[in-house]
Fold:
Amino acid sequence: MSEPIRLSKRLIELVGCSRREAELFIEGGWVTVDGQVIDEPQFKVDSQVVALDPAAKAVAPEPVTLLLHQSADMTAEQALAALTADNLGEEFRFGKRPLKGHFLRLTCAAELQAHASGLQVFTQDFRVLRKLTDDKGKLEHEYLVEIKGEMSPHGLNRLHHGATYKGRELPPVKCSWQNETRLRFAMKNPQPGLLAQLCASVGLTIVSMRRLRVGGVSMGKLAAGQWRYLANNEKF
Structure:
């Protein structure tokens, strides 16, 4: 019985490609072993059936951006560690196939406010990272905030034009009632703790908050803990 060998070596034997081409085919998700996509060139095979998709291209996989509905009790580091193919949102299990390489070399590109849930952005794409870094002062963040307490008189107007908190001037924000206990905020590049200060400045206390959107990209219908790919037609 022959010794198991690397999948990349078996592919070279089957199709006569170079080692680099074999690695690119495999990392791109074009190779199956007994019908299952394997994207690790070092994966060991012996008698299994190895096949290369006829449409395969020996090019490096495109960098991806993952949009996660992060839970409020998780840090960005914990959320990143928990990202797997298994928690891809049910409504988004079509088109791009999750590969192990999609979960490597990811950078958190737009931090949430502390203790907030909602849209978290992880990317491999330097263009997305540059956009969210260089233009962060221009990108609007939208949060849905559950509050308690009674808003002080003319509170919304104060928030719209710039409230003060403990003698400190706060930036003007867009704010509206979603219902009797929820406020929707939209602001550019919110600094850490800003939402809590805004609410406190008009007599309110935050119960919970969830980010819905960054720039032109919204979270979509993702349950907590689920993620999806940034679509090609979505722009921050």
